[in-house]
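Recall the central idea of this unit: under ordinary conditions, the amino acid sequence of a chain determines the structure it adopts. In this exercise we apply that idea directly, starting from the sequence alone.
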Amino acid sequence: MSSTTRTATDRTGTPASAPLAGSVPSPPTAAAAPASATPPGTPASGTPRALPPAARVRRAVRRLPYLLLKGATKSVAIVALLLVWEAAPRLGLVDRTFLPPFSEVARAWWGLAADGQLADNARASLVRSFTGFGLAVAVAVPLGLLIGWYRPVADLLGPLLEVFRNTAALALLPVFVLLLGIGETSKISIVVYACTWPILLNTVSAVRNVDPTLLKLAKSMDLSAPRLFQKVILPSSVPVIFTGIRLAGAASVLVLVAAEMIGAKAGLGYLINASQYNFAIPQMYAGILTISVIGVAFNQFLVTVERRLSSWRVPADH
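Accordingly, the structure predicted from this sequence is:
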């Protein structure tokens, strides 16, 4: 050991290479950084990287033939039906007085749309239908969750539900008219009644048929009852609940049309009924087609909402 080193050691009592007590250690150099460190701006492992716009465009172009083929496959049956509808009256296979060609129905539909009759009647029907449907969802889903989760409530209300679920909504239409009149209240009420039972029964079934394995695993983690309900019961029940909601969506339109044929002054049901009485057959079929289109669009909207709420179950690209 040299005399200079001994002198530094003797003065400090510490080897010259050791850091002093209480001193702040110098930051590590770049060479000491781990080799697997993520550079700034790089997404964490497992996080999907957003594709640049050019890559998204190329991907969409590559998928275009598949999407066109899929759309053609889904629409071929509809196109075939319309062709048969157009040809059968013209070839004399059916009486065109009672079933006019589709082209005549399309012209009648355009005439109703042009003079505003179609929009006014469709608006009246949609307001009644969506109001009744929304009230039914707001009442039936919480009640179904309660009945499915708590056995005493199910035992208490079960017999009453069995009575009403087997009573057709249209059979009670005269009762609603007698009690509530022929105004908006009776029409919305019959829609609420018709929509409640599919939602309620599917919700009860969804809660009772949750996978027992999931329940055992959740209970083994000492989850409280509210957390178990929130994390296991509700997510597992969404697909079956939405099956009932979609059935109710179709019932909301169909039952309303029947209700509008009694004492209504506006609505698609009123339009169909008035066209029949006036023997305006193309306008009658135009109203029926409008109801079909509204039903399909509403069902597709509910399917989209279901996929959003159950994205954990359905892959995003399906």
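The radius of gyration is 34 Å.
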